[in-house]
Amino acid sequence: MFHVSCINLVSYLRISFHFVAFVHLVVTAVVTLSIDTTVDADPRIRNYFYIRWMLLTCWFNLIMLCYLPIVIYCEWNSCGLGSGGRKCIPLLKKIADVTMTSVVAPTTFMADIVFWTTMITNPEMMAPPKLFDYLPYWCQHSLHTVSAVVVIGDLILTPRRRPRNLAPRFTIMTAFYLFYLIVLYINYLNGQIVYNAIDSLPGSKLRTISLAVYTGYVVFFYLQWMLIDLVWR
């Protein structure tokens, strides 16, 4: 009976953690996406009303908006609180697990570090400085600090097992990163500069930065599995 109670308590803790994270992300999304930069006199600022959908921060936070309800639903049914639809739970868990460990976790860690490093050293490499006046400062932390805390909490709280072969997930991670680079390049060809660095730095430096970011992806990909092994071995 005590063992069962502990299991239910941990399940409730997971549900509560993911629910709070989801509500926080919804509030952040409503606030940030309702900001209208088209009223600015600077055409570069006005353009960000559309460019924001190409930002990596937007991508991984939108993925999290889909991921969190799925894990809440799965946990809710797994601990006997839900009714019906349980046949799809294993598939949903698999999709959520692959999404988190292949895309969300390495992308969130790498993007958050790159963001704050650039903000401290040279924010103009990301966007015109005036753009940051439109976004409340707490939103920056919600998008680039709380995001990493939520991912770490998820890796610790959600049961996972290292697959026998990490190659498929590594391939998904690499494909996601390459796809994003292609999107940036296509936008550049169309005159849409997603990040100022793309237009201000020479091609050789951009290639070096891209390789460095990918190296960070690889490091965080394996670090997350070290954490998972440590907690869930």
UniProtKB/TrEMBL annotation:
The species this protein was found in: Bombyx mandarina (Wild silk moth)
Name of the molecule in the record: Androgen-dependent TFPI-regulating protein-like
Example of a GO cellular component annotation carried by this entry: membrane
Mode of membrane association: Multi-pass membrane protein
Cellular localisation: Endomembrane system
Keywords: Membrane, Transmembrane, Transmembrane helix
Catalytic function, reaction form: 12-hexadecanoyloxy-octadecanoate + H2O = 12-hydroxyoctadecanoate + hexadecanoate + H(+); 12-(9Z-octadecenoyloxy)-octadecanoate + H2O = 12-hydroxyoctadecanoate + (9Z)-octadecenoate + H(+); 12-(9Z-hexadecenoyloxy)-octadecanoate + H2O = 12-hydroxyoctadecanoate + (9Z)-hexadecenoate + H(+); 9-(9Z-hexadecenoyloxy)-octadecanoate + H2O = (9Z)-hexadecenoate + 9-hydroxy-octadecanoate + H(+)
Highest taxon, organism lineage: Eukaryota
UniProt family annotation: Belongs to the AIG1 family.
Transmembrane segments: 12-33, 53-74, 95-115, 135-158, 170-189, 209-232
UniProt key word Transit peptide: no
